Amino acid sequence: xxxxxFFRKAISxxxxxxxxxxxFTGCDKDDDxxxxxxxxxxxxxxxxxxxxxxxxxADYTTTITASSTSNSDILINNILNFGANYSVRATISGNTxxxxxxxxxxxxxxxxxxxxxxxxxxxxxxxxxxxxAVNWSVECIKM
Length: 143
Known about the structure:
Helix content is 17%, strand content 51%. The chain has one helix spanning 2-25; strands at 42-51, 54-66, 73-77, 87-93, 96-104, 107-116, 119-128, 134-142.
């Protein structure tokens, strides 16, 4: 009889441990909590912009939207205040992103950036057809 009671208690304890492990390890944080795409989406106020090494106060907004082609891609709209027709694609990986080389209306863009909470900075090389490359860097905060 004692052996049977011990066996039932051991089985009950093992089941409780299994459920506890499943509860605590089965609910892993999603990609957004680790610096995923949703952390980038929204309006960003550009606070400082540098053309080459010359800093200027900037006062414009860029909007980041989700790309429909990939879950790890975003679109940076109105990049460098070029206007609504200039939306560049960037691929995110956690709190960093890469802007692969792409040409929009005769202007080539490429670069990279980082996001730290509600602030973000990125550098972009801009080449307009027939001109030399110009390096821009931007600092912004999420609105």
